Amino acid sequence: MDKELSIKLPAFLATLDKGSSEAKLSPLPLEERSVIYPLTFPLSTPTMRVSGEPLLNLNDSEWSTWFNVDHPGGRGDYEQLDAIRFYYRDRVCEQPWALEARTTDWIPAHSTGEKVHSDPALGFWCNNAEQPAGRNCSNYAVRFLCPKGHPVSAVQASWGPWSDWSHCPAQCGQVAVQVRSRSCNSHSHHWEQQCSGLTVEGRVCKGPECPVCTLKCGMGQVNAECEACMCEDHLLLGSIRRAGGLPAPGAAILRDGPAPRLLTLSDHNGHFRIPGICPDGNTTLVVRLQKHVPLSFVVPHTMAHTSVFHLKLDRAERLQVVKSPENKVRRLGQTAAFCCKVSGSPEPEHYQWFHNGTLLDQKQLKYDSTLVLRNLRMEQAGVYYCKASNEGGAIKSKPAMLTVIGAETPSCNPKPKSYLIRLPHDCYQNTTNSFYYDVGKCSTAACVGQLDSGIRCQDSVQFCCGVAKLEEKQISCQGYKLPIMVTMQCGCQKCVDMKALVRGRAVAADNGEPMRFGHIFMNGIRVSRTGYKGTFYIQVPSNTERLVLTFVDHMQKFMNTTKVLPFNHKGGAIYHVVKLLRKKEPVTLRSTETNMLSLGEVESQDPVAHIQIPPGSFYRENGEVFMGNVKASVTFLDSRDLSTAAAAPSDLNFIGEEGDMLPLRTYGMFSLDFHDDDTGEPLNAGEVKVLLDSTQVKMPEHLNTMKLWSLNPNTGLWEEEGDLRMEKKQRGKREERTFLIGNMEIRERRLFNLDVPENRRCYMKVRTFRSERFTPSEQVEGVVVTLINMEPSAGYSSNPRAWGRFDSVITGPNGACLPAFCDDQKADAYTAYVMANMGGEELEAVASSPKFNPNTIGVPQPYLGKLSYRRTDHEDPRAKKTAFSVNVAKPNPNAAEEGNGPIYAFDNLKECEEAPFSSGHFRFSRVEGDRYDYNTVPFNEDDPMSWTEDYLSWWPKPMEYRACYIKVKINGPHEINVRSRNMGGTHPKTVGQLYGIRDTRSIRDMDQPTVSAVCLEFKCSGMLYDQDRVDRTLVTVVPQGSCKRDGVGPMLQEYLVNHLPLAVNNDTSEFTMLAPLDPLGHNYGIYTVTDQDPRTAKEIALGRCFDGTSDGSSRVMKSNEGVALTFTCVDREVTLQSTFQALQNAQGPVLVSGVRESRRNRRQRGGSVALRSSRRRSARNPKATLGRVSG
């Protein structure tokens, strides 16, 4: 190569210098300027086609195809000739003359700005280490120039037609390259010889004309980019404060616009200085700082040479799911809409929808926060959820299930499922050899009803499977027939809309002292207050995802506590006992000195951590440095104290990077309150250090993942404040310890946590029952089951060193699945302490001693032995029986006996939730005493859809459950059963027909051994289901045994006399009345409560009845308070026939219209029954009950 070769092309000039193997492109005049088209060739120039020019034959040569055998990962992109020959030996000549390189995005190698190397004998390579900071090599493809071996005619005959030219990518005033391609039509093994030449060619194209700058400045001059006006004689000064008033170093100040431009950063004091900004009233600037909401402000119009701003940023609020998509049931061809509402500061920027875990195509479905699926197909059934994201992170909604059924398929199974109810003890059924009768039950699943044509996130009417047909049956008992309604057919009906309620008490964690008249906040708004006894009652707003409540004590006795309270999304009331920690007495700190505060509450043990506050760290709310004395109250919740678990705030969850809610394992929480010692003004603090003693972390794997977190009181989620680093510190003169040290700021959030994310997770299956019979039909919904994760002491699995986490779940129709930490290597790495609570009543766990029965516990051996089940009274019979502990051993997939519950791997939640009753599970049961309920029309109080429109329904109107109790005092040496028999009284559709019976055993007075009392439920008077007319229920109260009525409360007697008709009461061993229509109260001995949930209504009324007041509540029976009836009962010989048997065949009770007529018929008798409760008697042996019934 001893000459310089120049080739004039239409849009550029390519030159080849002497001694060089690389062509250079010289710039042309503006009117001829174009983007460089890369060429690398020796003197023998290849053939190249350029639009508008004939085919140039530059010596007899041709280009190979493009090769891309490497990717830019690792050290870089290496397109080496040896590697290319290894894969494509016949496609590259032995000695290429030249090579050409471009990226896979068609960008020439020399236009990428990257440092690259090329040699036709070696190939092409790009090294990541040689690139600018933060940048790696592009993905390159190369081709080689080789001697031409075939005539043009043969080549042209095998090529297909050229494609259309690609779109010109040039911007205004610029040039670029368009390309087109062709393919080889030959199918022979020598296709390369027949299709020699270019597969892709390019031509130069020009962009559109550039617009003329039209920006006009009323003040200053237009800058070179034509994007803003600049005033050289104006200076903008300002200071930026973060949430809490602390300085904001490193905040970015940008000029707002389509392409925001960075102007400056704030210094270490949060100050900034920007010259040249025009104060024309049209310039908008934006301040951005990590974890804060961007702040926009306008520079106002002024003629002054300096403008000063003082800005305060608000903390960025993490994304929060306000509304998740709802389950939908549709038929083939119908339409379903799923909606996802997410809030945050800033607002979500992107939404993604997933089906069975697979991302859906946004371009195809055109979704945003709403996903609409039209013309549904069977394969579209499954689980859907949305994921929203912004610059601060992402969050996922709860999943929604889409069920798609055939056009003619019944959406509800018309055949009822089996549902057994227990019969009275003298109704033994020979056909089934038991005291149970199958009344049938319909599924509670959603179904397809009549849908309107609108596309809605929430269907205007919800449809559920329910009872479509009832049939009356007569049950044969000993000497009489018992009526009962049996479900014969199920169908799709409108769902019963029930409100979700939460009630309970807020009390001290140490001694149960109530938080009187405290405030309860939701999303910063006060929604309720606690009563004198700490009671509270809240109706959960519709569409609530997580019920996050903050309890604030205005008397400053207790620490402000944020709780995430589980509730029943289907409706109904859930009872919670909220435990509160007492505030520590404040100490005085000098703000000009270094202050050290210890975090630890367990005697004889070292503190878990220390808080170090340097001098000058306290600030007022306006950002002013505070230099006086500080009153500091530091309350530490020590996880080594097992009694504090129930008082822990929130539910120890956070949102991960991918938007999933993940658990934390705590090593302690602390609340900090700082106030001016003189004025009481709240103070903030910056540059605070937390020093965690590493010896307190017994699991070494937690040392590297420990973080500092703060609680968001609105979402109840923990948000990361910072990492902790290892550092050795001198403690005393000789002892050196390693601490985990982190920095924090005390601003508007005052509750912090030392936690680690824990990914060793499982689920535990628990079921709750009405009695110890543990039958499927006696499962109870709405029970709060709580699991506390324990970290055992080394070698002593039964002696926990600390608790790490707690979770509460509400039981449903198939029990509950509680999240728990577990381990697959060590069975006792984590243990769990489990308890259950319903309406303030603690349920009883299955005994583990002296008898250890796996069948009763619900878990088979040998897995039960590995779990080491222990009830709390296992070693001490005097202890409570209301909890159990187990090792949470992750099931071994290779052990068949461990694959069927009660512990499930974290990925098998659905398997846990849908597990059959025969699968392993742990059990709790209610301790009800002697109590028996019978309804002629069966109704499950846990399932509102089991309510049916029938005149004999105990609860005549859903969503308005009215519970009535009468208080009966018994003078006698024994606790006895008392029955209420409830029949239709004045309604023509029900008169003389049985609504139901209630049996309850009296409770002995602790101070009077010969006195007991009972709160007996009866059916309230009122409208029946048709809401046409009222029925005054005919209620007969009959104590079992030899009893005599001593008296009726004077106010009750007066009411009954004044509200005719009056029931006849000739028999002094019982009492009959037409139940009052009015709610009355404790002065009458009648307790009535109406609520949207039947269990809540009964529990409140029962609590008032026990207390003997109209507004109180008690679990202790007060025998002398608020009594309606008094009986004296003595021992008597038991007969063989019950009153119930005798009265079934006797003449029914007679009603009269006045007092005078009732006296003439005083000898007539009202029907009643006095069966003894059947609790704890054998369901298989009728002989156990014969001869034990008395009238």
From TrEMBL:
Transmembrane segments: none annotated. Residues 300-403 form the Ig-like domain. Keywords: Extracellular matrix, Glycoprotein, Secreted, Signal. The keyword Glycoprotein applies. It holds the Pfam family CILP_8th. The keyword Manganese does not apply. InterPro entries: CarboxyPept-like_regulatory, CILP-1/2_8th, CILP-1/2_b-sand_dom2, CILP-1/2_C, CILP-1/2_dom, CILP1/CILP2, Ig-like_dom, Ig-like_dom_sf. Residues 1157-1191 are annotated as: Disordered. It is found in: Secreted, Extracellular space, Extracellular matrix. One of its GO terms (cellular component) is extracellular space. This is Cartilage intermediate layer protein, nucleotide pyrophosphohydrolase. It comes from Scleropages formosus. The gene is CILP.
